[in-house]
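The passage that follows is intended for readers who have already worked through the single-chain material. We present the inputs for a multi-component assembly, then the predicted structure in tokenized form, and finally a short commentary. You are encouraged to pause after the input and sketch how you expect the pieces to fit together before reading on.
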Amino acid sequence: MFKKLPTLAGALLGAAVFTAAPAQAEYPDKPIEMTVLFGGTANTIAQLLSQLMTEELGDPVVPVSRPGGGGAVGYAFVQGTRPDGYNIVWNSNSINTSHHTGKIPFDYSAFEPIARVSVETPALAVSNDKGWSSLGEMAEDVKGMDGKLKVGISGKGSFTHLTSAALFDKMGISDKVTYIPYGKGKAPVELLGGRIDAAIQWPGQFKSYADSGKLNVLAVTGTERVDILPDVPTAAEQGVDVDITMWRGLAAPKGTPKDVIVTLDTAVKKATETEQFKDASTKLGFSPAYLGSEAFGEQIAKDDAFYGQLLQSLGMAN
Amino acid sequence: MDLFYQAAVASLTPAAIGAVGLGTLIGLIFGSIPGLTFTVALALALPITFGMDTVPAIGILLGTYIGGMTGGSVSAILLGIPGTPSSAATVLDGYPMTRQGRASIALGTAVIVSSIGGLFSLLVMIVSVNLVSKIAIQFGPAEIFALVLFGMSTICGLAGGSMLKGLIAGVLGLMIMTVGIDAIDGVNRMTFGTINMMQGVNLLVAMIGLFAVPYIIETFARHGRGETETNDTQSLRVELPSFGLLGRNSWLIARCSAIGTVIGAIPGAGGPIAAFLAYDNARRFSKKPERFGRGAIEGVIAPETANNAVTGGTLIPLLSLGIPGDPATAIVLAGLMVHGITPGPALFMQSEVQVYGIYIAVALAYVFILVLQLGGIRLFVHVLRIPPQLLSVVILVLCVVGAYSIRNSVFDIYTMAVIGVLAYALMRVGIPTTPIILGMVLGPTLENEFRTAMALSDGNWDIFYTSPVALLFFGLAALIVGLQTLSGLRLRKPRSFAETSNA
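Having made your guess, compare it with the prediction:
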């Protein structure tokens, strides 16, 4: 639903100015198109990042929204472009999940990792009247209760669903949970309305509710606490061994020259170090988490195995 | 009061006022050009606000949102092509008015009632945001499903000559929206193994196809047959609605403002359903319902009042619960968050000044709309002097650009073209296109809320009949269907071309 018109203007302008340039000019010598797969926070971070990268590179980096198919449409588009560094994709764990659920016929190895940019950590919230203040209390109560715990997620196979499945499995209550899929960030309200018992969503969605004391956020699922909810302990701190975060970063089609990747990697690094980026991260509820090309590639490969297995155990793998 | 004063000082600087004005202008322009929509305008405006101060940034976004909502009526009235899904209901009577040479009255009325509706909802919001958000929380999946089903019942009023054809159209709309990945289980449906089909049919793309493409084909067909101008340009003059006209309809305006505000406040319902319900309400309680669909001014007043009243209503769940009602408000939400305003219950405790600032920006936006639009009508009506075959070429280009720009997808251009040609074929056999849009708007919500409700109740149907709110809306829906069946038995309505092609 989100799109960038400056794209069009930028692309036309760029084309007009640079067609006369010699073919062997230094990269970049024309606008770089950054395909964005999702709306919401993903889109907002991408727009900010592209502005900051533009300042670093001198040539415009233009975010172009290609949503739909849970990321499949955008991945397929970028995967089919020429590997010259002028088409990059704002990717995330969805490259792993889209492949394993059969949405795209290729996997992460169709892309060269450029750099990881940010990390978002899901949070588990429960309604106040449950009286739970830790994961331990919750697990104990749930084990003894009749019926099932209703947990709000964003849709089957969504990242919040996978996180919930892994977390509740480690808490030993996975057979006492039933998932209620909601769209449009409505889970906090459903929790407030008393229709569900718990919800796993992004910290930004719970922030205001937690501040006003209407909901109780029990844990975040990463190894570090998040800036937006500094008082909320991690699951690991409470003895539940999970580490699931959603990373976002940039990738280019397989075969993109090494020096191009390095140029982009450096620009990302500088962009993530700016005050503006750090400032936005606290407001939007993500953590800047730069990781260079090689380390990023290793993480993607590691995650791919993890999500493949998780989806397999949920019966959702293709 | 002191906080309000602070907010007023911050929001009434030249930069802040200018920002609202600029936003409103952008919104009006994008909203009024067929093919371009205010969602595009908002996405365009968002990155510009990153480097700005909080107050002007919010001013631009809210101005664009509100301007776009109002601007959508311009092409709906002048060309019969709605600029936003919310203005699809305005086409029903607005376009016939244009063909009768009363375009400027329709446009003028639309602007004025839009502002009244918008300001009414703003007032409701200021006075009762806490109460309304408490009520909104009570609307769970079962209640929203019932409400949307009630919205579906308005197909009765849109079907024109034949109920059967209206239903066919409505079901077509529902079916189109099942293409793609379903939001609940993540299963591919009707994608035929292609990635492009997985993105589904976008509502805006389909809307452009449904309304603009048949207009273009029809115009060329007429031109080919050597038929001349159908619009009455001889009597084309700028004429604004009189106070008498507005006074006579003040009760209707009040009702539709209330409908819009209430529907807007319910998370997940949104503008189009409010506009269609308001239109149906106006027709049903009119002394001369047969005038509807043939250029009744009430048919413009009702949806335009309601769809702008939605703007204030939508701000209630957006600000107090952090839930965006539609893609456009989702972008507004992102803009607020970038500037450190996190919507939700804490907003009203922590950032009261900003909240007042938002109220002031909305009020300012409506002042700008009145000034810009009432001035703009003098220009807009001259569009009708352009020979239709030339205008069609321009619209065709805009539609292709517009369809592409929504998701930067070339496939969407083909989707628009295919839907457009099918829409023309349906029009030729007398199947109205408006119920298709209604089915498309309501379909995904109808299905997803139903399935979420069933998941909540663990497959038990009693979730639907144990909720009084849900029962109320089911009852209203049954009442409308019942009334329609009765009146259908009593008299057979005469058909007319205008009714079937635009209804």
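Commentary: Chain A touches chain B through 65 residues (CB under 8 Å). The radius of gyration of chain A is 21 Å. How closely did your sketch match?
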